[in-house]
Write a structure and sequence with these properties.
Structural class: alpha/beta
Shape: globular
Order of helices and strands: EEEEHHEHEHEHHEHEHEEEEEE
Bound molecules: iron/sulfur cluster
CATH superfamily: Aldolase class I
Number of domains: 1
Helix content: 25-40%
Distance between the termini: 37 Å
CATH class: Alpha Beta
Number of strands: 15
Length: 305
Amino acid sequence: MRGVREGEVVSFVYGRPASVGSDEIEKKPFFHFHPGTRALSLGTLGCNVLCSGCQNWQISHAGASGGEAERLAFLSPSRALDMARRFRLSGVVWTYNEPAVWLEYVYDVAQVFRRAGLYTALVTSGFMTVDALDFVGPLLDAVKVDLKAASPEGWAWLTKIKDPQPVLDLAVRAREVHGCHVEVVSNLVPGLNADDTSVGIVASWVRDFLGVNTPWHVTRFIPDFELSYLAQTPLAVLERAAALGRKEGLRFVYVGNVPGHVSRHTTCPACGRTVIHRDDRGATEVRVKAGCCVFCGEDLGVVGI
Ligand code: SF4
């Protein structure tokens, strides 16, 4: 994504989105962050991780040193804001590929959205340095990070990352230092990270380091790219993992990539009422006020409403 041109290190992808969309925030997935809103979604070419099962591999595994990015239309930060306003969007999310590869653009876009009073959210592999996070962290409202495995071996097999500690550190630092709302996804691949021990390790880590109100999405693996030969995750495996997460003390565990699944709704853990009702696209009914259940006042850790 970077190279040397006329003696200077440059970004090839600054302002060159490969994907631009208007998505429900729940699609990212963010379930406790501005529910029921839509955001401008931006992604470019490249990634700093090489996941074998990446569903966006056509852009995330593409290089940009051969002029590929220059063929993409330029979108200035102010035009991105104009676009969001025109379509009545509530914020911006960097998604589809890893935002760290065009961090200068993330910074510049985040600044104009912040000034306009719109939200900013990062969907990230989490594999970036502390300096990189601290560069954009003060301008971010939310971070979604994947905890892809319970062991370094599992991470290495799925992502080629040998040491996942930077990812774990990023999730904690985004929340504690930058005050970001954090949600976690674990895509469960049978035979790799979906057994009870692995699930228990990840769930207890989320509980201990991010807190019991952190939404944890256990999502169905859909075969793709280098892992096309594997089967998708059986529903029973996902439901067992969700139950284990709740047993570990997590209050908001969602089964993802399963259309129509009942766990897509948010239930207040104190009074048992449904407080956020979702269809397969986004929130359709929200019974939350100042982050709390409107029925009993329980803190649900919901941001933006
Ligand atoms: S971090 Fe995300 S975008 Fe990058 S290769 Fe992995 S799944 Fe794909």
